[in-house]
Amino acid sequence: MYAQVIIDITHEKLDRVFTYCIPSELEGMLQIGMEVLVPFGASNKERHAYVVGFSDTCDFDTAKIKTIQKILEERVGAEAKLVALAAWMKEHYGGTMIQALKTVIPVKKKEKPKQKKYVRRLVSEAAGRERLAFFEKKSQKARARLMEALLEDEEISYDLVTKKLNVSPNAVKTLEEQGILRVVTEHIYRNPLKQQREETKEFVHTQAQREAIERFAKDYARGIHKTYLLHGVTGSGKTEVYMEMIAKVLKRGEQAIVLIPEIALTYQTVMRFYRRFGDRVSIMHSRLSSGERYDQMERAKCGDIDIMIGPRSALFTPFANVGLIVIDEEHEQTYKSEQVPRFHARETAIQRARMEGASVVLGSATPSMEAYYRCEHGEYELLKLQERVKARELPSVYTIDMRQELKEGNKSVFSAKLHELMEERLAKREQIMLFLNRRGYSGFVSCRSCGYVPKCPHCDVALSMHRGGKMVCHYCGYEAEAVIACPSCGSRHISGFRAGTQQIEALVQKEFPEAKVLRMDMDTTGGKDGHEKILSAFAGEEADILIGTQMIVKGHDFPNVTLVGILAADLSLYTDDFRSGERTFQLLTQAAGRAGRGKKKGEVVIQTYNPEHYSILHAAKQDYESFYAEEMQYRSLMGYPPAEHLMAALMSGEDEVHLEKAAHYLKEYAFRIARSSEAGIVGPASPYVGKVNDIFRRILYIRHARYDILIEIKDRLEEYIEMNKGYQSIRIQFDFDPMGSF
Ligand code: ADP
Ligand code: ZN
Ligand code: ZN
Hints:
The protein is α/β, with parallel strands linked by helices. It is built from 21 helices and 31 strands.
């Protein structure tokens, strides 16, 4: 038997695994994640290593293979547990062990940690005076100066000693050797949270909050670790519930991880945790430097903090005793990684919790189909918060059929109802949010006469119209002058689809010239804290109307917003993705939830060309259960997750003919190995974006009710790919239960 190990896991050169022989006395004792001692390099220097896998065979000259010396007796550390988690991720999601390790363990960067260095007096004041007299008598002026300063202050900064007092480092060293002082170096971790802890308001929890907290507390006290789904509308007090649960976990000396989608990780949210738990809290986000991020992980490892808040990657915080992992807004797509291993934070969190004896709490107003399905099947426990705290009413919702508006001669993007309500709000000085169900630059150009859509010659996607008369490709950046007449039929009725946030902003300005407008989309939120700035400005009531994409439905609470307008609610229904109905329901429900969060009741206008679609009907009523039941029928009928599991094999290459052939053979092989298991195989097809930057793409879908069978098929396909030369120029990635289109 052989073991694969990695050396020095936090090093940048985490690029390969090494094979070692397992000595007979260690056979059967080694486990993945264990720390061992191995001889390494030409000089056979002893090094610490982690076991990451096993094999019966070995590709190298077996005579040259070195042997593991021993298992290090130390307790399994946080890192070893993460190595074991990485091994699970590799198995569960595909890819290599190195890719999995790089995901869970942050790489040490060569940035210097900030240090504080000072000099501390060790001798008593009396002894110090004696030394001072001695130095003065001997005319050792520098030493005397230092001694004098140390008699005044027991500790002085090292900089002060060498620069202001002009004492040489050598002189300091001499005094240190004489036992008079000590040079102390303290690591100062870069702490991204600098605020002071404040007094917290004490709440009387609602009945529903109390019940949820108690269910968790009871199980936790008895050592029962489960996954809970906290289903509560926005404003029902979920965050308060998380904080109570976390307090229980901290009391037992365990730690908590709180995952929040990056976009919702606003100053407001973080400060709530900080006010409650003080500087035992740390945050992670993409705007931190790699040095800051590394420091946060170090602080977690050495027990400096107990709570880590952050997006997906915070899941891998190396806490020694994780007691609770919270995933807020668990339905969010961003919890699925787009890089290999394409892991889902929900499943990976549950696995980490299982391995380390922790609980998981998922929270959402619109739970994912997966989470709710698992509650129904008894895998998770459902906790409900049905009402908003302080009995605030949910908003009234009006669904407007835009086809009818057109028939009645209204060609504007605003229905008569929305226009009327906007005027009313502006007069009352209440705020309005206009939500565009799409990314900001989706203004694709189309011909109203023949339907022609100009596309990027490299990427096969529609070009978007930008202000200034340019059409732009959002995959590769290709630009072209806007066309005046349709290249296909010659009609002059060709223009940008009126659905970009920029266009909406211009229209709002035209129809409501007195209104102050803010826009939030990919273009306006660039730069440090860009989106935070816009949200704070709107929260500070610096504008009457905020226009934005899905970004605006998260994060801040805006008590003065009493009207939410949802323009073109059905745009997200037309993506080529089996989750589009779910996504539409979530977006509409979350957007509607922004209205009336203050004392005044809110109203919501949903504009649609498809008012009878069940996603829109149930979102308008804020009726999750009915939506779930109907959507689940569709998923079961089609065999889509969560009814069954779906594995995508994404193939890409530069030679389209060769790619086509390789995809075809992979499918043939998949058919052969899947025959006995009755897996369904679809494709290979060109994905939605068939070509990006002149790289062609194909996709093969394999479906089965059992995940473990899909994993077996994946393992066989990986072997096949590795053995066949024809696949060398082709990149293949696996994606389980994919989210979104490729
Ligand atoms: P959610 O996370 O479900 O959107 P929050 O926890 O943010 O809800 O709660 C919404 C608002 O209500 C917050 O301002 C919060 O401080 C407040 N709140 C929560 N629980 C209570 C309570 N029991 N009594 C009074 N206010 C509460
Ligand atoms: Zn045309
Ligand atoms: Zn392009």
